[in-house]
Automatic annotation (TrEMBL), chain A:
Keywords: Cytoplasm, DNA damage, DNA repair, DNA replication, DNA-binding, DNA-directed DNA polymerase, Magnesium, Metal-binding, Mutator protein, Nucleotidyltransferase, Transferase. The keyword Magnesium applies. It comes from the Bacteria. This is DNA polymerase IV. The gene is dinB. It comes from Orenia metallireducens. Belongs to the DNA polymerase type-Y family. HAMAP family: DNApol_IV (MF_01113). GO terms for molecular function: damaged DNA binding; DNA-directed DNA polymerase activity; magnesium ion binding.
TrEMBL record, chain B:
It comes from the Bacteria. GO terms for biological process: DNA strand elongation involved in DNA replication. GO terms for cellular component: cytoplasm; DNA polymerase III complex. This is Beta sliding clamp. One of its GO terms (molecular function) is 3'-5' exonuclease activity. It is found in: Cytoplasm.
Amino acid sequence: MELNIIHVDMDAFYASIEQRDNPKLKGKPVIIGGRGKRGVVSTASYEAREYGVYSAMPIVKARQLCPQGIYLQGDHLKYREVSGQIREIFYRYTELVEPLALDEAYLDVKGNHKNSIRIAKEIKRKIKKELKLTASIGVSYNKYLAKLASDFNKPSGFKIISPFEAKEVIFPLDVNNLWGVGPKTAQRLKELGFYKISDIAKGDRSLLIREFGKRGYQLYKLAQGEDYRKVTPPGLPKSLGKETTFRYDTRDKGVLRGYLKDLSKEVANRASNKNVKGKTITLKVKYENFEELSKSRTIEGNISKQEDIYRLAEILLEEVVLDKKIRLIGITLSNITEDGVEQLKLL
Amino acid sequence: MKIEVNQKEFHQCINTVRKGVSTKTTLPILSGILLKTEGDQLKLIGTDLEIGIESFVDANIIESGEIVLPANYFGNIIKELPNDMVRMEVNQSNNTAFIKCGHSKFNINGFAADEFPTLPEIESGYSFSIAQSKFKDIINQVEFAISQDESKPFLNGGLLLLEEGEIKLVATDTYRLSYCHSPLEDQEVKLESIIPAKTIKELSRLLDHSEEELEIIITDNQILFSFSGIIMISRLIEGQFPNYKYVIPNKSSIQAKADKENLLRAIKRAALLARQDANIIKLNFAQDELVITANAPEVGQAFERVGISLSGDETEIAFNANYLIDALKAVDNEEVTLELSGPLAPGVVKSQSGDYICVIMPVRSA
C-alpha cells in the first residue's frame, strides 16, 4: 500500500479566479452563479462562506444572507481554460489523471520514480506560482482516503493519510464521511446503530450486506480504509448533452426550434472537440409543472454535424405534446464512437 | 347482433387483424376492431388508416349487426376464454357487447360501427398473382435493409418492381442494399411502388409457406394483398426510390466462393469480439482461405479461418459484422459468392442462383 494517489481540489475555484483577475474583488465575498430568479450558487469565495453562502444554494437565498456580496455570472470558458492549465501541470508527473470536475482530479503517480509526497508538494507549489491559485491536496494509498485528506484543512490544505494512521483518522468520523453515503443512507445506518465509521468497521458485515447489498460490502471495506477503485483517465464520453432553461416558459414551436438549433450547434462543437460521433439523439423537455419527458431516436449511421443533430431533434420535437408550456429543453448525443472509423455510404 | 363463434377460430381471426390496429392514436375508435356480420360469417377489420387488415371467421349468425370493440380488451378476453363456443350479443342502442363463454361473462363498451373509418376501397388497379411462399421468401430476403431514418420517408419501405417479366423487391438504408428478383408469368407491364416497412413486416408474418395464391392489386397510392381469406390494404409511400441499378456494381475485381453456413458461423463468432461501438470485423482474402479478425480493445481478439476459392488479388476489407450476418442469413443456397473491388468499394454478397444480391459498403478505419 503505497502513497500513490493524489487528490487535488482547487479552493473556491471560480471565485478565486475572479479575485485573481480583478484585484478589486480580493478579500470580498464573491459569489458565482446563474443570474435570474432561478439561478443557484456554483462557487462562493471563502469570504462569502462566512455569511453562510454555499454551493447549490439558490441565488435568491444567497442575496438574503449576503446582500453586500459581489454576484457574478461567471465565465466558464475562462474556468475551462484555467482547468486545462492545471491539468497540464498534472501531466508533467503522470498520464493517470482522472478529472472529476474542472476544479478537482485524482492522480495516480505510481509510474513516477519521484516520491509521491514530493510530487504533491511540487504540484501545489506550481499551481500557486504559475497560476496564482491555491489547491488543497490529499495524498494516500487509495482514492477514498486521498479525497478525504484533501478536504481536511481547506483552503490551501495538505494532508497525508498513511496506512498506519488511516484507521485512527477515519474511525472517529461520522458515517456520512464515507464515500457514497448521502443523507438517506446515513440515516439508515444510524437507525441500525452505525454512527461512526468505526462502528461500521467493527460491525456485522453480513448485516450490512443484508441491508445494503453490494454497497453494504463496499461500505464495510471503505470503513477499513480499503478502496479498490482505480484512477481511470477519461475514455470516450458516454454521451454529450446540452440543455437550457428558458427565461420564459413557452410552447411556441418556432421558439423551441430556435433553441434546438443553438443546442445542436453546441453539441456538435463538443463532439468535434472530442473527435467523436454518435448514433442516438435524445430530446429532453421539462414542462412548466416540472414533469419531464424524453424521446430518442437511434439511426444506423453516426452523426456529429449540427444539421444532422438538429434534423433528428426536430423530428423528436414533433412527437412532443405541447399541451403545457415548457421550461427546459435539451439534446443529448449518445452511443458514441471515435470519429476514426467511418461506415461508408452507397447513396 | 347476436352470434356464436368458436373461441379458437375467433382468437386467431382477432390476432390477424389486430396488427392493423393503431397503437398510438388520437382517434380512440382506431384502437378498436370492427366486427360485422356478412352472410354466415363474421368480418373483422383493424386499421390505422395506413394499413387495414380484414379477415373472416365462420359464425352462427342469429341476428346480424355490427360494432367496434377496443382491440386490447376484446382481444385479450377472447384469448383467455376456454376453447368453447363464444356467444356474443350486441346492444346496438348503446354500443355495448355482452360476451359469454362457459361460466365467464363480460360486458364491454364499444363504438358505433358507422363511425369506423376505413381505407378507401380499391376500385381498379393492376392485378397479378404469385405463390404465397414465393412472396414470403422474397420479403424475408430483403426486409432487413429497409431504412428507419424517418427523414427519408421514401426509404422507409421496400420498392416493389414489375419489369422485364420479373417481380423484384429492393430495400436500402444507404449503407447496404438488398435485392431479390424472380420470374413472374404473363407479366408485361412496368410498375413500381414503395410498400411501407410495417406492411411488409405484417405480411411476412401472415403469409404462410404454401403454394396457395396471393393476389396483389396495385393502384397509384394503394396496394391490396388477398390470401387465405385475409385482405390487407396498405397505402403506398410517395416519392422516388433510388435507382438500384446504379448501386449494384456490374463488375468486380475479386470473387470469393464459400460455404454459406461456414462463413456465417465464423462471422457470427468473430463478431462476438467486434468493437462494440462500430461492430467492425476485418476480412482478409487469401488464395484459398479467408481470415476474419476482430479486435475489441481491452477485451481481446478473435481469429477465424474459412476455406474459399478466390479469383483475383488478395485483399483486406472491413465491414460492420451485422450487415454481413443479415446478408448471409438471407442467402438460401449452400454456396455464396462475395465480390469485391478494393477496401473502400462496395462489397457484394450473391446467392449461387443469382436471385439474391446484397450490396454492403465497407468501413473505413483510421
